[in-house]
Design brief:
mainly alpha, 225 residues
């Protein structure tokens, strides 16, 4: 059970954040996302808007779950013609920059962590990263928030950034492909408004992925024994 939770909980946490943002953004009158996205898609600053949205989503933990990818998916649904290769490239770069910033701020706070945490606790965390780091890299292919959390943990534990950059570039490209390129064909039929269905589907997908990753993490060590 412990192995299952170690693999599944990060994805379950992301799903919970997605549902919290769904309640805030779609079940209250705080924001009119449709109006925001409609204004952005008709602006010459659309590319910058997309970059900033994904960048904020890719920096952990200051912005929590910022709905950057949700805004891009909505822009595809509202105006498919406004989303081209330049938007996908901007999103890819934003994920990479956000993950590197997450790593940098984590390395900045590493001395503070070393003061408040025991060496034994840090060694246990480092051993977990060494043992399950390959599973954690799977998250890089799922969502910008997952990239940010992985590189934050890597920075806090003193991991090397250079050897992880290749995984980051491939993972960011996969995230962009899954979230933007493939979904473009699916959400183009949503219509001129969005009622949060994409956010709920994202949360459901994260739960499913977390269950699969957790099951694999729990099953593989038993098989090896």
């Amino acid at each position: 059970m412990r192995r299952f939770l170690s693999g599944a909980l990060p994805f379950y946490a992301l799903a919970g954040l997605a549902m919290c943002m769904y309640l805030v953004l779609y079940k209250t009158n705080l924001f009119d996302l449709n109006a925001i996205v409609q204004g952005a898609t008709g602006s010459s600053w659309f590319l910058v808007f997309m970059f900033v949205c994904v960048l904020l989503e890719s920096v952990f933990p200051y912005f929590g779950y910022f709905p950057g990818t949700a805004l891009i998916l909505m822009s595809v649904a509202l105006s498919p013609k406004s989303v081209d290769v330049s938007v996908f490239i901007a999103a890819w770069l934003a994920i990479i920059v956000g993950a590197v910033l997450s790593y940098g701020q984590a390395r900045f706070f590493r001395p503070l962590l070393q003061r408040v945490a025991s060496r034994a606790a840090l060694r246990r965390c480092e051993s977990l990263l060494d043992a399950y780091g390959s599973y954690a890299r799977v998250a890089l292919f799922i969502h910008p928030n997952a990239c940010a959390m992985y590189f934050t943990a890597l920075g806090l534990l003193g991991g090397k950034l250079r050897r992880e950059l290749a995984y980051l570039c491939v993972g960011a490209a996969a995230s962009v492909g899954i979230l933007f390129v493939i979904v473009t064909r699916l959400v183009s039929s949503v219509g001129p408004t969005d009622d949060g269905q994409l956010q709920v589907l994202l949360a459901a997908a994260l739960v499913a992925i977390g269950t699969l990753v957790g099951s694999y993490a729990a099953w593989r060590p038993l098989r090896a024994d």
